[in-house]
From TrEMBL:
This is F-box domain-containing protein. Residues 37-77 form the F-box domain. PANTHER family: BNAA05G37150D PROTEIN-RELATED, F-BOX PROTEIN CPR30-LIKE. It comes from the Eukaryota. InterPro entries: F-box-assoc_dom_typ3, F-box-assoc_interact_dom, F-box-like_dom_sf, F-box_dom. Residues 9-28 have a biased composition (Low complexity). The lineage of its organism: Eukaryota, Viridiplantae, Streptophyta, Embryophyta, Tracheophyta. Residues 1-35 are annotated as: Disordered.
């Protein structure tokens, strides 16, 4: 019932704004109105609509479209949305990836998510490359004339818009891509690298970058003097993309690779998660974080050039075993209220996420409904999701 009332409210708002924006300049007494409806008033009214309604409103009229693609409008919409970040969860159903959002800041132990859009996704040939500022970057591998091609796709879960990017330029079979953002230039970039196959070679080559929003979407080769092979998803912090990689296959030695998004230069850090804007690594006393784990270790980067880290140990409360049970959890990141979010990789009934507060040593378990319908397929969980209404041509 609540959802229906909300939909009616949105429909009423759209109808009212439409009547205002299309009102005749002639008044009821036959004389012309000297004060037409100001565009800024429509601007303010539209800012109150959800992102998926904004996408529909672009089709109402040329006036609305011109307002809704203005950089000041999209940036203000994003800023307002950022004040209430959400959890973004996805799960695979058949050959599609379904997206849900749920409140990130709450006191309830039970949350009902909102269903958003879906996008084609084959687990064997598709990969989620990253989530930044309300956008998802995925890659799909397809076969064309007996040759494999990797094609990145930008997807906005809030509006349902998607944009297929140019295929990665490489003759190799395996491709790994990362999604990155430069806050200084306000630019999104996709970093890709490739290697022959797992058996015949492990060092990545053909490092290349695609910059969005330039009007000319094309891949550019960049130099990388650090032989490595990425092993985990990356994280982008303050214009730097970090990801863990193997740098010596024989010994299995790994390092943190740092890619400066603006300069497009590579470096590495010996020995990642984001903690209060700093790079950190979270580990547990066991290979997997479960109800049997007793503590977590956090390593915070102190000096990247000197490869210096600080170590902190956090012992779980006595209730941890009962709260976590048999769930196998992985680290998502830090929420705005200094809690680390832990989430299962696969569906369970019921489905829980966990918030651990380092400073207080407390744990909260929150059930998210409608996530346990599937018994197979991985659950992807993202922190700090915000609604973004930018057109991809302007990203």
């Amino acid at each position: 019932m609540k959802s229906r009332r909300q939909n009616l409210s949105v429909e009423s708002s759209i109808s009212a704004i439409s009547r205002c924006s299309s009102r005749s300049p002639t008044s009821t007494n036959g004389r012309e109105n000297s004060e037409p409806i100001p565009a800024d008033l429509i601007f303010e009214l539209l800012l109150r609509l959800p992102a998926k309604s904004i996408a529909r409103c672009r089709c109402v009229s040329s006036l609305w479209s011109s307002i809704l693609i203005r950089p000041d409008f999209t940036e203000l919409f994003f800023t307002r949305s950022s004040s209430l970040p959400q959890l973004l969860l996805s799960r695979q159903e058949n050959d599609e990836l379904l997206f849900f959002t749920a409140p990130q800041v709450h006191t309830s132990s039970l949350v009902s998510p909102n269903h958003h859009k879906k996008i084609p996704f084959l687990l064997s040939t598709s990969q989620i490359c990253g989530h930044l500022r309300g956008l998802i970057c995925l890659t799909h591998q397809r076969t064309v004339k007996k040759r494999k091609e990797t094609v990145p796709v930008m997807f906005n879960p809030s509006t349902g818009e998607s944009l297929e990017l140019p295929k990665v330029k490489t003759s190799m079979v395996m491709v790994r891509s990362f999604f990155a953002y430069d806050p200084v230039a306000n630019q999104f970039k996709v970093l890709s690298m490739s290697w022959p196959c797992y058996k015949s070679g492990w060092i990545c080559k053909d490092h290349q970058v695609l910059t969005l929003g330039t009007g000319n979407l094309s891949w550019r080769m960049v130099e990388c003097s650090i032989p490595h092979h990425p092993t985990y998803d990356g994280i982008c912090i303050n214009g730097c993309l970090y990801y863990q990689a193997i740098v010596d296959r024989g010994s299995g030695v790994s390092a943190i690779i740092c890619f400066d998004v603006r300069s497009e230069k590579f470096s590495f850090i010996k020995k990642a998660q984001d903690y209060k804007g700093r790079l950190g690594i979270l580990t547990a006393d066991r290979d997997e974080l479960t109800g049997e784990s007793r503590y977590m270790e956090m390593w915070l980067l102190v000096d990247a050039e000197k490869h210096e880290w600080s170590r902190h140990v956090y012992v779980f409360p006595s209730s941890w075993g009962n709260v976590a049970g048999e769930a196998q959890l992985y680290y998502i990141g830090m929420s705005g209220n200094n809690e680390v979010l832990l989430s299962p990789r696969y569906p369970s009934s019921p489905f829980y996420v966990f918030y651990y507060n380092f400073e207080r040593g407390t744990i909260r378990r929150v059930e998210i409904q409608r996530m346990d319908a599937l018994k197979h397929g991985r659950i992807h969980t993202f922190l700090d999701h915000v609604e973004d209404v930018k057109l991809y041509a302007n990203v």
